[in-house]
Amino acid sequence: MNKRKMRLVVKVGSSSLAALGGGCDPGKMSLLVSAVNQLRQAGHQVVLVSSGAVASGFKGLGYQQRPRTLAAKQAAAAIGQSLLMQTYTQLFGAHGITIAQILLTRSDFSHRGRYQHAFQTLSLLLEKTVLPIINENDTVSVEELTFGDNDMLGALVAGLVHADLYLILTDTDGLYDKDPRTHKDAVRIPYLSSITEDVEELAGGASELGTGGMRSKLIAAKTAQQLGVPSFIGHLGEPGDLLAVLAGQGKGTYVDYKAEKQKRSLPTLPTRKQWIAVHSPVRGRITVDGGAAEAILKNRGSLLVAGVVDVDGSFLQGEVIDVFYDGSLIGRGVSRYDASELQLLLSPHQDGKPSGTVIHRDQWTEASFLA
Ligand SMILES: Nc1ncnc2c1ncn2[C@@H]1O[C@H](COP(=O)(O)OP(=O)(O)O)[C@@H](O)[C@H]1O
Ligand SMILES: N[C@@H](CCC(=O)OP(=O)(O)O)C(=O)O
């Protein structure tokens, strides 16, 4: 049995929280609450990423089924989110657990200041043993509702809090070689070392209540892995199932997680580097020569102005730029110069070799980590 105290992000989909005809399903939610309580009792820290706002709220708008228009989904989410939190408050309260609601959008991750605030808030809540419950801020997020991004939101949160494991709970016990709803002979895939394009091809569409289907879970697991977090995709049938997952006995699909090793193959990327790798808006690009590429890739140095051979875009000091060598992207980092300043330094009229650092090593992330 795995004894290590872990930090876990648990993402639960609409199908695992709402009744088929809409509204919260207290039975399904009680099961989740008991399972999370068991994890906490065993000493693990948990962040819950919960969908279900639209599915819980559409009945309140007078709809018989999940609405299709964006405005109706957003209005349904506004109703359902408060119902969800009311139910969670009661159910977790019965176990003496204080909960906190956090609503995020994708753009909160690309804004460095907001990203840092989210990190600080989550860190303090966890330190105080509060259970953070995160959902998209549906009223203002368009893409999330269209692309089923809560799976991705959970992956980004898992990276942000440096989770040891990302658990994606759904109505199906893992990835099958074809959609098990439509193929009786589908076979479950218990372990994947990585998510390749062939693996993505296996996944089909969403359930009646859900959004992204298995495909969005695989893409999310791939991003989590990039950030250094292994994943599990499966179904919650009994309260003890989540503890079984940690011990490597979960019924589902593990991605890059070996319980007996009790560790991931990659360390999580530092928060600052995650922001550069996955969330930052890229404002321009520079091309460097062989010496500069070797300095930053092999010798763990910084990137100096002297190695820059070309500048593209109109980025400002402090903005993120891509770095190319020999036609290939080698990494991304925060520029210490405006593009116009760099252009000037590289001009042939410049006396002597320019000096100075364009990208400091601490503000740099290699291409293998980029989304
Ligand atoms: N290859 C596959 N393996 C497993 N499930 C699949 C596969 N292809 C499609 N699915 C479907 O994905 C659905 C889960 O996705 P979704 O409805 O978005 O869930 P949630 O609401 O839990 O996020 C399942 O109901 C399942 O039928
Ligand atoms: N924010 C939306 C999430 C939509 C979504 O991603 O749903 P799911 O596929 O069930 O995880 C909601 O709460 O309904």
TrEMBL record:
Main location: cytoplasm
All copies of domain PUA, residue ranges: 284-366
One family name in Pfam for this protein: AA_kinase
Location in the cell: Cytoplasm
Binding-site residues, ATP: K11, T170, D171, T211, G212, G213, M214, R215, S216, K217
Keyword tags: Amino-acid biosynthesis, ATP-binding, Cytoplasm, Kinase, Nucleotide-binding, Proline biosynthesis, Transferase
EC number of this enzyme: 2.7.2.11
Any one GO MF annotation of this record: glutamate 5-kinase activity
CDD domains to which the protein is assigned, alphabetical: AAK_G5K_ProB, PUA_G5K
NCBIfam families the record matches: proB
Role, per record: Catalyzes the transfer of a phosphate group to glutamate to form L-glutamate 5-phosphate.
The protein's name in its UniProt record: Glutamate 5-kinase
Species assigned in the record: Brevibacillus ruminantium
Higher taxonomy: Bacteria, Bacillati, Bacillota, Bacilli, Bacillales
Gene: proB
